[in-house]
């Protein structure tokens, strides 16, 4: 089941970040689990944002959840906790859109000086839009398919090389590579080789 459980906008600080606003859906959990789940997801989001470098997208798996985070250069950050089937590219698209909308809604000094939650009702709209990625527009779907294709291509190359074949052999046997491409590959490989003697 593809689901987003928790979404937060966070101001990154040196010791501990401040959650500026958040939205969640814990309807899949039992009544007595909800408080613990929320605390875990809040903690995971704050910890991940605190350890993420500016302008970096991160996704960390903690079975059966994945915590996604993005920190802007001005220390405004967003985090989402999803199930492990949720597409990471869609999660990061959500984080980017959320941060753009949030920054447009609030002046920088407002969120930089806030010590607790800010009222931001538009967050619920963003959360509901991305809670089920199958309901997103066609552009998002196409972007997700392209990302999936890239992942499949990388997995295919790795599986070929794991069978004991060398990339050199594959390049030399390839009929669809021009002589110039093969020469370029060999030259690039030689220039990247380390010297064994000084």
UniProtKB/TrEMBL annotation:
InterPro entries, sorted: Longin-like_dom_sf (IPR011012), Longin_dom (IPR010908), Synaptobrevin-like (IPR001388), V_SNARE_CC (IPR042855)
V-SNARE coiled-coil homology domain segment(s): 138-198
Alphabetical GO biological process terms: endoplasmic reticulum to Golgi vesicle-mediated transport
Residues in Longin domain copies: 8-131
Gene3D superfamilies: 1.20.5.110, Longin domain
Organism domain of life: Eukaryota
Keyword Membrane carried by entry: yes
Alphabetical UniProt keywords: Coiled coil, Lipoprotein, Membrane, Methylation, Palmitate, Prenylation
Main location: membrane
Family: Belongs to the synaptobrevin family.
Protein's recorded name: Uncharacterized protein
Organism whose genome encodes this protein: Larinioides sclopetarius
């Amino acid at each position: 089941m593809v689901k987003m459980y928790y979404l937060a906008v966070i101001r990154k600080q040196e010791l501990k970040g401040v959650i500026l606003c958040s939205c969640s859906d814990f309807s899949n959990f039992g009544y007595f689990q909800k408080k613990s789940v929320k605390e875990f997801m809040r903690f995971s989001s704050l910890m991940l944002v605190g350890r993420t470098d500016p302008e970096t997208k991160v996704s960390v798996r903690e079975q059966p959840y994945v915590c996604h985070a993005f920190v802007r250069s001005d220390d405004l950050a967003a985090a989402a906790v999803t199930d492990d089937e949720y597409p990471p590219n869609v999660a990061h698209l959500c984080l980017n859109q959320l941060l753009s909308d949030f920054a447009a809604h609030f002046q920088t000094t407002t969120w930089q000086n806030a010590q607790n939650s800010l009222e931001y009702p538009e967050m619920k709209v963003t959360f509901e839009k991305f809670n089920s990625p199958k309901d997103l527009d066609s552009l998002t779907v196409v972007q997700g398919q392209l990302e999936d294709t890239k992942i499949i291509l990388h997995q295919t190359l790795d599986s070929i090389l794991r069978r004991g074949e060398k990339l050199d052999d594959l390049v030399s046997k390839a009929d669809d590579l021009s002589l110039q491409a093969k020469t370029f590959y060999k030259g690039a490989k030689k220039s990247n080789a380390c010297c064994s003697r000084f």
